[in-house]
Sequence to fold (324 residues):
Amino acid sequence: MTRPWSLRLVALCAGAGALLVAAAPARARCAGPGIATGPADRAAVPPDPTIHVFFPRRSAYQDRAPRIRVTADGKPIAARIEEVSRGESFVAVRVAVDTDGQKQLTLATDGWHARFRIDPQWRAPSRRPVELAKIDHRADEWTCSFTRAWFLEIATPADAFRVEWARSPEAWQRGEQTAAVFPRNDMDFWHGRDPAPRRQSEPASVGLGHLDCFGYTIPAEALDGPLYVKVTALFADGSESEASPQPRRIDRRDPAAPGPPRAPEPVLAVHTAPAATDTTTQALATGLVFTGVAILASGILVVALLASRRSRHRRLSRSAPPPR
Fold:
């Protein structure tokens, strides 16, 4: 038997709503990353600043970072631009600018720009060695990708971080560590246009591993065993924090295992937790869910109205006098 067209409409609306509801988390977590900077866009910087720019490689910047145009108070100004690290997921570029009394600095490339206010009263935070507040290991899978990474929550204020890692104390002693420069928070790739004060108030967090659709921030093979890690804070005046005396060992199998010989210090707890979802992702997912529900409800309402109209038409047809 052929379905009435009204039932077909219900099925169509229900399918569309269900697809949107099911796809909400995937679409939210697969949102394309954008360019990040350290310091944040619209932040205050000192005269002669050093700014790090982070280009995601899974966007338009697969091979090399685009040329950055630098202007101060609307006029071109010379800058020293250098690529400082490159990984599977992003490229880090350092931009050092010599200013001369200007008030505003702008970095730009095709389709993107970031502005900074030059503040002669700018002061760098403390340059003490970086303090790691917490380390989480997160591992989960979902429809399109997965997370398997260490997340370092950093208590030290900074504009960017240089992370160095090696597989063993002996590798450190031989100078075989690898280094990469990271933004102060992984979500800066998605929140790059948020106001600087809001972004700077968020905890600093560096993810080492595979971060959903973003890809690997360190090589996959580095996750197979323990990591010996050092983190250095980088500031907008070109300075950096004091070096940590020894690398920190992080290992899921033995979180309290010692690294190279060093003075006793409190053991940093390592937690295993599901990957957290930021507020922007939650908002996007919630919006998609409500859209799916709205489509489903609209379809049902339309069918109900049409059914009521047809029922009324049948009643009128029965009550009409027969033709003479």
